[in-house]
Amino acid sequence: MGADRSRADSLRWTAEGTKTFFGALDALPDDRLDRLIALDGWTGRHLLAHVAANADALVNLAHWARTGEETPMYASPEQRDADIEAGAVRPAAELRTWAVRAAETLDARLSELDDRQWARQVRTAQGRGVPAEEIPWMRAREVMIHAVDLGAGVGFDDLPADFRVALIGDIAAKRSGDGPALTLTATDHDRTWAVSGAGDPIPVTGTLGGLAAYLSGRPAHGVTGPGGPAPELPRWL
């Protein structure tokens, strides 16, 4: 696991994030799901279908961990995209029900794993081999970040502080080597992070919430570089 998180942390954040995501979703009437959100031309329907399909995909990894039978998250990237597009046109009530049931099924499957199964290697959609105890962290990121993406009043500052610390560390590591070199300093936490990349490191400062938003490629208020805005980053997740 990462230096800033344990399996217990990730399971707790998955539970908290699921509550946050569906609380935000419940605040949105069906017609709001038809609106575009700031994610590659997706509507709220696409986002909800993605979160539901992600839970189904992680159930596959939980099955792999429990049985040893190789079960990829998705049949292919093309199938993943097709499932999201198909899900986005389902009736809103059906789409909401799918998302809830998929989340409940994932929670049930994860609760069945023992220590040996948590240690079993599975593979992410990007092809990385990871121990199964990474599954709840993968889910926590999805429900926490996409709760913000719903646009229902949840911001990165509303997410748990320890989750934001772990998220910044995770994204900083994954962004290293791709893009500008950065040194990130939190103004509300005694912590810095480094992103390796091209050129001399550019100092970037902001709150934990601002840095998490910035690194994930979302609008980030109060995040600054030397003498002006921080370098723009593409969306992550």
Automatic annotation (TrEMBL):
InterPro entries: DinB/YfiT-like, Maleyloyr_isom, MDMPI_metal-binding, SCP2_sterol-bd_dom_sf
Domain of life: Bacteria
Keyword Electron transport recorded: no
Keywords for this protein: Isomerase
Pfam family, one: MDMPI_N
Residues in Mycothiol-dependent maleylpyruvate isomerase metal-binding domain copies: 19-150
GO molecular function: isomerase activity; metal ion binding
Name of protein: Maleylpyruvate isomerase family mycothiol-dependent enzyme
Species this chain originates from: Nonomuraea cypriaca
